[in-house]
Design goal:
The strands form two sheets. Strands 1-2-3-7-6 form a five-stranded parallel sheet, sandwiched between helices. A two-stranded antiparallel ribbon has the order 4-5. The longest helix is centred in the first third of the chain and has 22 residues. It is globular, with a radius of gyration of 18 Å. With 277 residues, it is an alpha/beta fold.
Length: 277
């Protein structure tokens, strides 16, 4: 897809995200919105996945370590064709396969996640398996910045360097807000680039609010440099909905009817503009 098409796809998914969270009356909407651009880029430009063969042994693997933002993954999987039409309407209902965190019952989801700090460890295992089996698939892990307080992440980071996992890409959704407030007040991350570089990783910064920069950064990864890769995705919590942007209380929340209508109006106007350009 071209950049403009990816932007349009992301906005369409953003509107869909608002619809399902509002209907289900639950969702981690702030973090959903901040990582949606990256998810769109991954599934429509980066990942080698096949809707008709979701268990292809050569498929790229994706792990949503910040599993509480599963609603953004659901709408991405629906738009890609993994989740059939109508299933998203069951979110939050008894008997639905869609829960508040990713589960393998949902087509296209590799592992159950949500207990923060474990996604990268699983990703390291998948990347090692690819090396052992001499297969060229890549593994991508999306983490939250609040999640970086979990010590298991750094054990995984050391292992990834030890085994020279250049087929592993970790992404930090750096929106600066977690459930308790500003990340630097809760558990400061200092200089992420210096920290992960010291662990032996190839570190790149990217503007996670800008699709062009996201694509450029993914395409610049050197998968033969014997180093695991970290992308620090600088984003805005609640991206794309004016009253949610950079507001900590929208870590988890459901808009009122008036707020919902305002959000849909804002997103729809951007979609219309993109379609008419």
């Amino acid at each position: 897809m071209k950049t403009k098409e990816l932007v349009l796809k992301s906005e369409t998914n953003r509107k869909r995200l608002m619809e399902i969270v509002y209907k289900a009356k639950a969702g981690h909407i702030g973090g959903d919105l901040s990582c949606l651009n990256v998810l769109t880029a991954l599934y429509f430009d980066v990942l080698r996945v096949d809707v008709n063969n979701p268990k292809d042994s050569l498929r790229d693997r994706f792990i949503l370590s910040k599993g509480h933002c599963v609603e953004s993954l659901y709408v991405t999987l629906e738009s890609k064709g993994f989740i059939k039409e109508g299933v998203l309407e069951t979110l939050g209902q008894y008997g639905s396969i869609l829960s508040g965190h990713p589960t393998i019952e949902v087509p296209g989801i590799e592992v159950n996640t949500g207990a923060l700090g474990h996604g990268l460890s699983i990703g390291v295992g998948m990347a090692i398996a690819a090396k052992m089996d001499k297969k060229d698939y890549k593994t991508y892990v999306l983490m939250g910045d609040g999640e970086q307080g979990e010590g298991s992440i750094y054990e995984a980071a050391m292992a990834a360097n030890q085994y020279k996992l250049d087929n592993l890409v970790a992404i930090i959704d750096r929106n600066h807000l977690q459930i308790s407030g500003d990340t630097e007040d809760v558990m400061g991350l200092d200089d992420i680039r210096s920290r992960w570089s010291a662990f032996g990783w190839d570190v790149k910064d990217m503007n996670g609010d800008d699709m062009e920069d996201i694509i450029k950064t993914f395409h610049s990864i050197d998968y033969d440099n014997k180093k695991p890769h970290l992308l620090v995705s600088h984003t805005t919590k609640g991206k794309g909905v004016s009253y949610m942007e950079n507001v900590a209380k929208w870590h988890h929340g459901v808009p009122s009817e008036e707020q919902y209508e305002q959000a849909i109006k804002e997103i729809s106007e951007r979609i219309e503009k993109l379609e008419n350009e």
